[in-house]
Write a structure and sequence with these properties.
two-stranded antiparallel sheet, Rossmann fold, 466 residues, 6-stranded mixed beta sheet, alpha/beta, 3 domains
Length: 466
């Protein structure tokens, strides 16, 4: 229910912004062309010609705004972060709109109209956002759009619930009291909210305080009391929400699912299934094919240099572990002398490794020895972005000494990753690398992949020295 209220608020905000964007376009037309404030040299086009582009300008704003997170429920509703998001949304909307207009060639849009629109499309929605908090406060003083909530639970879990609700005032939920597990806490305060009693008194307090919603946030050891709490409010017109005490067990991509009609909590999941997997695979195919075509002359030159400079094959093949710990053969340009590693004795490569050839040293420095892994991406053995694949021998060591290490294999291994662009590659902390890998899995999106690829090119950390 809480999330639905947040989504409703943001949906109303989106609808309001779309109206204001259309108004910004209308104002830009009149300020530039009919107000007389700015000279017009080529005649004034009729308003009807400028109304047609609204058919794609308004949807473009909506798509861009949603993609940039302008309408996503966030912890706070601060004016300056909203202003920055509006600036980015307006700028990208103008770019996409200009490109669309050029393709359609329906009307010749004045550049100054676009500039004025871009500024108005920031100012008008921002003014609306400055007005929204004031309006909400006035409505709440009158008791409109406010639901009174009672938290029944353990202090630590209740603290998290109160903090979350207070960070989202737009949801219209007001916590009026807490019912604790211990009677010793009655009369004290938890985050400025008074402890009114224990969970044995929930029925009485719901009637006395005119409660609309009961939030049960009991600890695991008190779960047998949930039935008692429910029995006290089953005949009262209140909503009941259960917040399970599972924070210590949640490790990756948690969520609520419908298991054929049975509500289920995912405590340890993976992001890539269904359409997510299709989109990521399609992105990998398109980008890897393009990169291979563009880099063909460079790949040929590198292969020639390796062959001429030292005896041995051009490509180096090594077994690595990918998605779900499935082994595959990783391809790299050979950067070391042949037989640089004794059989059965895996050695972790280091910076300025003496086993590297002269050409290999430069390949590693310029991150070019990884280019053949584009073939691994085409085969579906790797992705462009993901945790770097490790050798089976090292994985056996890490899984015994580093908790949750194997969770990084819940997603396809990558040529570059979130840990690598932060400098954790080669002979660096495995624990720190794991933290970034798990953060990547938790936050995964195609937009995040694009960001990592761009940062990889900028920072030059395609190479992992492993």
């Amino acid at each position: 229910m809480f999330r639905q209220r947040l989504l409703f608020f943001r949906t109303v905000l989106l609808a309001t912004d779309l109206v204001l964007v259309a108004l910004a376009w209308y104002l830009a037309y009149h300020l530039r062309l009919t107000s007389g404030l700015i000279p017009v040299w080529k005649g004034i086009p009729p308003l009807a010609e400028y109304l047609f582009p609204l058919l794609y300008l308004v949807p473009i704003w909506g798509v861009v705004g949603i993609s940039l997170g302008l309408y996503s429920p966030r912890r706070t509703f601060a004016l300056w972060p909203e202003a920055w998001l509006l600036v980015k949304t307006a700028g990208l909307t103008v770019v996409c709109f200009t490109a669309t207009s050029y393709v359609l060639k329906e009307v010749d849009i004045s550049r100054l109209v676009l500039v004025i629109f871009g500024m108005a499309a920031v100012v008008l929605p921002l003014a609306g956002r400055a007005f929204i908090p004031h309006t909400l406060r006035q409505l709440r003083r009158k008791g409109t759009y406010v639901r009174r909530a009672l938290v029944v639970g353990h202090e630590n879990i209740a603290h998290q619930v109160i903090k979350t609700v207070q960070q989202h005032p737009e949801a219209g939920l007001k916590i009026v009291g807490v019912l604790a597990e211990s009677p010793l806490l009655i009369g004290t305060q938890l985050d400025t909210i008074e402890v009114l009693g224990t969970h044995n008194e929930v029925g009485t307090i719901v009637l006395r305080e005119h409660i609309d919603q009961v939030i049960i946030a009991l600890s695991f050891r008190s779960y047998e009391d949930v039935e008692e709490v429910l029995s006290q409010v089953e005949n009262e017109p209140v909503e009941v929400m259960l917040v399970p005490d599972l924070s210590r067990y949640i490790s990756l991509r948690c969520g609520v699912e419908d298991l054929a009609g049975i509500p289920a909590l995912t405590l340890q999941g993976a992001p890539l299934y269904g359409w997510n997997a299709v989109f990521k695979r399609g992105f990998d195919l398109c980008m890897s094919c393009t990169a291979l075509v563009l880099c063909t002359p460079l790949i040929g030159l590198i292969a020639l240099l390796i062959k001429v400079s030292s005896p041995g094959p051009v490509l180096y093949r090594q077994q690595r572990m990918g998605l779900d710990c499935r082994p595959f053969t990783l391809l790299k340009f050979r950067s070391m002398y042949v037989d640089a590693e004794p059989p059965g004795m895996p050695i972790w490569s280091t910076k300025n490794d003496e086993r590297c050839t002269a050409v290999g040293t430069w390949l590693r420095r310029l991150s070019l020895d990884e280019l053949p892994q584009l073939i691994n991406v085409l085969r579906g053995e790797m992705s462009l972005v993901g945790p770097r694949p490790e050798r089976p021998e090292f994985i056996e060591q890490f899984r015994r000494g580093i908790p949750r290490y194997m969770l990084r294999h819940k997603i396809q291994a990558g040529m570059t990753g979130w840990a690598q662009i932060h400098g954790f590659r080669g002979d660096t902390s495995i624990e720190a690398r794991l933290r970034y890998d798990l953060e990547y899995i938790q936050r995964w999106s195609l937009r995040f992949d694009v960001k990592i690829l761009l940062l990889t090119l900028i920072r030059g950390c395609f190479h992992t020295e492993t």
